[in-house]
User: Fold this.
Amino acid sequence: MAEAITALRQQIARIRAIPGMIERIAPEAVKAVDAELKRTIAAGESADGKKWKPTKDGQAPLKDAASAIDVEIVSHSQLGTVIAATLHGPEARHHFGWVKGGIARPILPIKGLPDAIATKITKALEREFHKTMGGA
Assistant:
């Protein structure tokens, strides 16, 4: 009987640890988001995989855009832990097409979370859930 009570208490403790999973995986998620955004920039495409239009002389645009991105954990009073990706410098104008020529070359996700980023965050959450629940 004592073993059953101990096991039940351990299970309750694991269940109570579930709400903290987001905070525990946030650093890993930041690295995943940053890496994925830098991968798409290196490929010359938007976060959702659409190729950017080449420059007038046929070159790949925004080669240095990866240095214009900051990805960080932000605490939000109503949303909790949030991962924010910020674009700064002239690259931000290119993102919206607010440059000479008006060609938008989106760098950050515009509509929803791209599948590649969502998959990486989901995998991190699954690993943390199994760890939290005593699975591995």
Notes: Residues 28-123 form one domain. The chain has one domain: 28-123.
